[in-house]
Design goal:
- This protein has about 400 residues and is mostly helical.
- It has helices spanning about 1-10, 15-35, 50-70, 80-100, 110-115, 130-155, 160-180, 205-230, 235-250, 255-280, 290-305, 310-330, 335-350, 355-370, and strands at about 190-195, 195-200, 200, 285.
- It has one domain.
- It has a two-stranded antiparallel ribbon with strand order 1-4. Strands 2-3 form a two-stranded antiparallel ribbon.
- β2 and β3 (about 200) form a beta hairpin.
- α3 crosses α12 (about 310-330) and α11 crosses α12.
């Protein structure tokens, strides 16, 4: 099953590479040109609000790849990846707050929320975040470090299945409660917001929004290539074997801990990258990004698209978040019911997700093409039928 689905999204064929290049060029060149060149209000003009919205979807796509890497290829269901996403976002948000300088409401070098809470000096863990590259590095290292420590003890204790999912959900809930506290120095329930510039460029300028869109699209493409390289290598085959029969891998002389830990920390790194790109485009980061429902929603993206395929989770993230953008405006009170019904429906009727549905439809179509038609009789209807010559018992003709 997994082999057939993986072949659909494989880059090993010429057709796969052409499809990847076509989609990348459309996203990275075609859509920005449709926004910048046609006049506003024209039929071909892409509205300005879609640029940061699509950039946000690209960040969700990176998270979907990270979830599929650890769940679809290793068989480890995490319900706590929202923590790694939020930590990457907080690291970038801290840099954006430091970049405000004395332009805040209180005209202080401290962030406004610290002045409001009567903080006298900057905490030690805020040091260095006035430099962009330090913040970018922390956005990757902090989620990766937390994932490594957590995963090391969890995998060494051979916690697996639903128990692992429960403790990851407990992790994200505990981190959310920690960041909600005002005395932790991360803005409490309001979080970090009112960002003004990034690398000297105004975040409110349309050119900056287009640039962030392009960077997010490039990060998504590179993340996909990196994940495809991993799952197509010998390491990827070992990860799939751990997913399907971990005990046999142990009897073969491999230590599953090392391979699971690698995939786990890599997925956390991708989530941190996505969070760092997400925050400048939405303009806020708060503890709400760590709530368990967000992590569950990430798993739904993968389940809807088809886990173990990489392309399927990207499709699921795009469709689910596109539907969320529509329904939270039209029927906001019905969205959670729709999301829950979607997850139940996919679990019951589409266990391989949408990509599995396409695969099944393709197999039916191929079988229909190969099915032979009615036998053709080359003899015309007016041609007399051949007569049989009677034979004697000894085989001679009469």
């Amino acid at each position: 099953m997994h082999g057939r689905l993986e072949s659909i999204a494989s880059l090993h064929t010429r057709r796969g590479w052409l499809a990847f290049l076509a989609i990348t060029l459309t996203v990275m060149v075609g859509l920005p040109l449709l926004n910048l060149l046609p006049p506003a209000g024209g039929r071909l003009h892409l509205p300005d609000f879609l640029i940061p919205l699509l950039g946000k979807f690209f960040c969700y796509g990176i998270v979907a790849l990270a979830m599929d890497l650890i769940w679809g290829y290793v068989g480890v269901l995490s319900l706590g990846h929202g923590v790694f996403f939020a930590l990457g976002g907080y690291a970038m948000g801290m840099h954006l707050m430091r970049s405000i300088g004395t332009e805040g409401v209180y005209r202080s070098k401290l962030p406004d929320f610290m002045v409001f809470l009567d903080w006298k000096e900057l905490p030690w863990y805020w040091q260095g975040f006035d430099h962009f590259w330090f913040a970018a590095l922390m956005a990757l290292l902090v989620p990766t470090g937390l994932a490594y420590v957590f995963g090391f003890f969890a995998f060494r204790s051979r916690i697996r299945g639903v128990y692992f999912s429960i403790i990851t959900q407990a992790l994200t809930f505990a981190m959310m409660l920690l960041f909600f506290r005002n005395n932790t120095g991360f803005g409490g329930n309001n979080g970090l917001t009112d960002f003004k510039r990034l690398l000297g460029f105004s975040l409110h300028a349309h050119s900056t929004k287009v640039s962030l869109y392009l960077v997010s699209g490039a990060a998504l493409a590179l993340s996909y290539l990196a994940c495809r390289f991993v799952v197509s290598s010998k390491l990827g085959r070992l990860l799939a074997a751990i997913r399907d029969a971990e005990s046999r891998i142990m009897f073969s002389g491999y230590n599953p801990l090392d391979y699971k830990l690698f995939a786990w920390t890599l997925s956390a790194l991708l989530c941190g990258l996505a969070g760092a790109l997400y925050v400048p485009q939405v303009g806020i980061i708060n503890p709400g990004e760590m709530q368990p429902s967000n992590s569950i929603e990430m798993a739904i993206w993968v389940a809807v698209g088809g886990r173990g395929t990489l392309v399927g989770p990207l499709l699921g993230a795009l469709l689910v978040n596109g539907a969320k953008s529509v329904f939270t405006v039209v029927y906001p009170e019905a969205w959670l019911f729709l999301l829950g019904g979607l997850f139940i429906g996919v679990t019951l009727f589409l266990p391989r997700g949408l990509l599995g549905l396409f695969d099944s439809a393709g197999q039916v179509w191929r079988r229909a093409r190969k099915r032979p038609g009615p036998a053709h009789n080359p003899r015309s209807d007016d041609e007399p039928a051949a007569t049989l010559t009677p034979m004697t018992p000894d085989g001679a003709a009469e």
